[in-house]
Amino acid sequence: MNTSDFYDGRETRSADERLAAQLTELKTLIAKATSNPVYAKRFHDGGLDGIDASDISEPGFLAELPILRKSDLIGMQAESPPFGGLNLLETGRLRHVYQSPGPINDYDGEGRDWWRVGRALYAAGFRPGDIVHNSFSYHFTPAGSMFDQAATSIGCAVFPAGTENTEAQARALAGFGSNAYAGVPDFLPRLLEKADELDLDANALTKASVSAGPLFPSVRQGLNDRGVHVYQCYVIADLGLVSYETPALSAMVVDEDVVVEIVRPGTGNPVPDGEVGEVVVTALSHHELPLIRLALGDLSAVTPGQSPCGRTNMRLAGWLGRADQTTKVRGLFVHPEQVARVLEQCGIEGRARLVVEREGERDLMTLRVEHGGDAEGLVERMESAIKTIFNLRGHVRIDPPGTLPNDGRIIDDTRDFQA
C-alpha cells in the first residue's frame, strides 16, 4: 500500500530527470506517428519531411510541428471515420470507444488507469478503502470511466451514480457511506442539500475531486465549511489528465505523462512563462492514436516556480477562458488565425488585439498592435493586409509595448447584441 504523500516517485523528479525521460518517450511517440500516413502528410504539409525521431534533443522540438485542433479532428473523423485515420491500432482492438459533443470520437486502451486520472485523485486524498460516489456520466462520453478507472486503480470502491436523479443519488451516498466524490463541482452542493432535505446522514463525505466545470470560490468555501475538501483537475476526453490541484492549492501541477505548451492563440508559437495563451498538449503515453500538439482551446499560463507541496513539475494557473474568439463582422467570420497572419506578414511579434465595436449602424474593426520600433508606413501596410486577409476594411492603432492586457485575448467583440 502506498502511504506516501505522492502518487509515485516521478512527481518529485529533478528537472533533468524529467527532461531525459520525456525525450525518450517523445522519440518513441514521434517514431510511431511518422509511420502513420495521415501524420506523415501533416508533417509534410508543415514542411517537415523526413523527421528522424532519433535527432530530437529537446521537447521544444514540438514547436516545429503543426498544431492539431479539435475542429480538425471533427472534420478528419467525418471524412474518414471513426478516428480520421490517426489510429495506429484497429478500432476493434481498443478497449472502449466513445463519442463526445462535436461530435468527436474518443477511445481508451489497455492499462489499469489509461487516462492517468489516478494521480489527481491521489493528490485529492483518495486512498485504498475509500468509497467513491462517481456522478460523472458513463454514457457516450468517457468521463465516468475515467474516474472509475482512476479510483479502482488506487484501491477504492466505486458507486457508479452517473446522472441518476438527485434524490436517488443522495440516498445511495448516505446508504453506502461514501466518503469521496467525483463529478462536476456544481452538483455536489445540490447533492448534499438534498441529503439534508431528506434527513440523510452524508457526513462521511470528506473529499472530492471535481472537473468539467469551474469551481467557484464560494462553492469551495461552502463545501469546506461542511468538512469536504475539494480539489480540481483538468481532464479532457481526448487524452485524459492534463493538470491537477494538490493540498498546497497553489496552481495546478502538470501530469507526468504529457508535455504542455502555452502558445499564442491563432499560432503554434510558445509564449514566455507567465503570459496567457492557449493550452497545447502532447500525450506521451497514448500510442494507440497519437495526439501530438492538440490545441484544447482553453487559455492558461505557466505559473513560475515549484509547488510548495513538493511536486516538481511545471504548473498551470488554471482555466483562464477560451482561446476560440471567432466572431462575425459584416456577415463574415473573423478568426484569431487571421490576426496572426497579418502580424506575420507585417513582421510584428508583439501582442495584438482586434477590437470589434458598433458605431451607429456600422461595425468597426480596429487592430491594436504593440510595437516599439520604427512605425513608418506600418499602419498603411497593416490596413492593406487586413483588407486582403479579412476581406474587410479595418483600422490600425499602434500602442507602446505593455499597453494591452496580458489575458490571451486576440479578438475583443464589444458590441452589445441585446441593445
TrEMBL record:
InterPro entries noted in UniProt: AMP-bd_C_sf (IPR045851), ANL_N_sf (IPR042099)
Keywords: Ligase
Listed GO MF terms: ligase activity
Claim: Ligase is one of the keywords in the record: yes
PANTHER family: BLR5969 PROTEIN
UniProt-recorded name of the protein: Phenylacetate-CoA ligase
Species classification: Bacteria, Pseudomonadati, Pseudomonadota, Gammaproteobacteria, Candidatus Kentrum
